[in-house]
Here is the input.
Amino acid sequence: MNRRAVYAWLVVCAAGGALALLSAGQVWAQLLAPTGLTNPEALHDVTGPEVAPVVTPVTLAALAGCVAVLATKGVWRQVIGALVAICGGAVVIAMMRVFDDVLLLESADLTGAAVQVTVWPWLTGAGGVLLIGGGLWAAVAGGRWPGMSSRYDRTGRDGRDGPPTERSMWDAIDRGDDPT
Here is the structure.
């Protein structure tokens, strides 16, 4: 059951990150500006990186946090899950900037223009919400999830964790093993 929860969590976070990354680079808004009698309206595209340049790096940080959640266990997994949720929140907050008409019009240096928002900022926000949910899920339940295999963890010859002691090295020599 716990493995299924980890897989479901991973799908949620990967979908949220992919959705946010995909939609972050698209055209978020179109500005219709009057330009004169011969050309009554001109269309200006405003892309996600122009309005919210923080979305891509924050989403990449959240995806890196998802990998870190898989590589850690216990309290560290919960802390990193909380950081993933914070990154998702930053994506949602950055997405909201597209609805600030004044900001869009000032960035394009247009007066008297009309703003038409596309579907892409909404999809970016949905990706951020998925990252928030996945991060909170890991923060709450991640401490109970199984960790990575301990196959490559370093243990002493006597089964204790940590570097070998002088005594354990002499015991290894007595058994005929090479302690180095």
Notes: Strands lie at 27-33, 42-47, 114-117. Residues 2-148 form a domain with the Butyryl-CoA Dehydrogenase, subunit A; domain 3 fold (CATH 1.20.140).
